Predict the structure.
Amino acid sequence: MKHFQECITFIHYCLLNGGSCLVHCLQGSSRSATVIASYLMVVHGVKWQEALCHISTIRANIKPNTGFLKQLENFGKGPEKEVYQFLTERYGNSPSSDGDLVKKAMTCSCKNLQLSNTASHGPGAGHAGTVAYHANGGLCFVKTYHSGCGTEGFPASSRLRSRFLCLPAGWTPKCLR
């Protein structure tokens, strides 16, 4: 969490100036996903669950470790509240070269997440062999391969695959309420 401010500032600076930014880590599944989720939380005002849900529609193998999930959950609370508030005041809802595209893509991934596509069983049970599961921090993602929303203007990576979330008991994404 101590690097969130520096990373968010760098990513936003790149995007505001018409550039792009590659965020990577050793395997591209934990640290990089956490950094991008923190950016989406600050700049686009989404909750950590929604940010990870969106990222997983684009990058299939994200698996933030338990410590990083806790950091995302606590980002904006406790001692980090001042940092989060500073970042949201500075960057929240500000235009970026891809701002509209990101908002469209997040809306699209949220619409693709239908309650009828969630599983009520745990990882390894049920559809063995037809879907792949991974569980992390109480979240269980079911990966399926089919076309996404297909809307023009989305990056190809957003259209290639969709992922459905096995919801923890009592949690429903904001877009499905």
Remarks:
- The chain has one domain: 4-176.
- The longest strand covers residues 139-144.
- The chain has seven helices and three strands.
- Residues 101-177 have pLDDT under 50 and may be disordered.
